[in-house]
Amino acid sequence: MASNVNPTVRRRRLGQELRRLRELKGMTAEEVAERLLVSQSKISRLENGRRSISQRDVRDLCGVYEVEDQRMVDSLMEMARDSRQQGWWHTFGDIPYSVYIGLETDAESLRVYEPQLVTGLLQTRAYAEALVQGALPETSTTEIEKRVQVRMRRQERITAQANPLRLWVVLDEAALKRVVGSRLVMREQLEHLIEMSQLPHVTVQVLPFDVGAHPGLNGQYAILEFADAADSSVVYLEGVTSDLYLEKAQDVQKYAVMYEHLRAQSLNVEASRKFIADVAKLYAD
Question: Please, is 60 exposed, middle or buried when counting C-beta atoms within 10 Å of its C-beta (0-12, 13-18, 19+)?
Fold first, then answer.
């Protein structure tokens, strides 16, 4: 597989194009499903990029939409072929949040609000191991190690020399004071957090308890943005058994405004580093 082929992103772009063709034809997803003798949910999954798209699917849909430009058909067929390739994360087997990893791998910037934990891209190995063990107590040692390895591999986007991911993180004070693993693990984690926050493309702000009620009380979320204008921004909401991806412009805008309020209510960068350092000292005893 070519290194620049991201199957998740290819599926998104292809799905967006197929939705555009359907809307140009003035057809509903129900009408398309009826013509192809498939379920409406299949058409929806193809268009939102959550399902692999076969070349046969593309051929059938282009037939329904009466696409006469063969170059367009060929381009869509090629995208379908690329979308069925495997990303680096597939070598680790079944990863519950593989769609998110695919998006994160191709994102240009990421804004994250974390109310309870240090965000995955800034976790130390020891913190990540303790976190997975605590959050998933019935998980095997092998599975824990796999999840930690995937998390460490994801962090390469932060440390990459070329085109690193621009990361902005707002951490609730609770994330710093919840002891994950041990006091030693927490001290090392907070020291690592301070070190990473000094990278020019990484910003970390702390939202202290004394702020009171704020727009992030509903929970964790992330906003992914992409360099290619064809790729719409995505809001990611993590769930226990399933995740939610919001791509409608009005939904993304709502969360973006919420994030601006969170940043404004948080300590500035320097004050946040001092706050984290002071908490780290509490774990030195």
Answer: middle
